[in-house]
Amino acid sequence: MNRSKAFKTQLLASLMQLADPSKIELSLVDCNSSDEPDLLGYLKAHWKGQLTYTKTDLPFTRSKIFNLAVQQSQHDLVFICDADIALPPQFLAQMNAYCRPYQAWFPEVMLLDEAGLPNRYCSEGVGMLGCHRHQFEATKGFDERIVEWGKEDWLLYFEFYKIGIAPFRTQEPLMQHAFHQSLKPKGFKPLF
Fold it and tell me: pTM (2 decimals)?
């Protein structure tokens, strides 16, 4: 999926604005993007934290890509999200406050409209999650039987319940998902 531009202008730009990005490990799995000829070179030139980067030609399946990103990372606290998310300045404090031994954080992101204005909160379909690595591993991660994307974040939400970890929701007006046309997989049906 060609989201490298959104990654640079949304996620990476917001990460670089945090108080101390040098303490953050960016674990990225680049799946078939072709819109940035040298994304890795750009990251090496601009990212000041630890970088773990893999480029793959696997067909895009968000579950597999997210699982690979967690597997290749080194840190205990993990946050998983799409490339077109901008994180708020208080993000690191939120991670430390909401990722607890007994809970995992599933923030509801603000979807922006075509004009870049807040539209509505979204709790589904953006794959966002903050937790401790051992919690994620105990759930077995995202269900890789789900092709492309859709519902894998909700299914993982319920897996946390099964292992005794409470999924914790917050509405985050400053955690924003940039507008793009929906790329729903063929045959997509809402879970609820």
Answer: 0.87
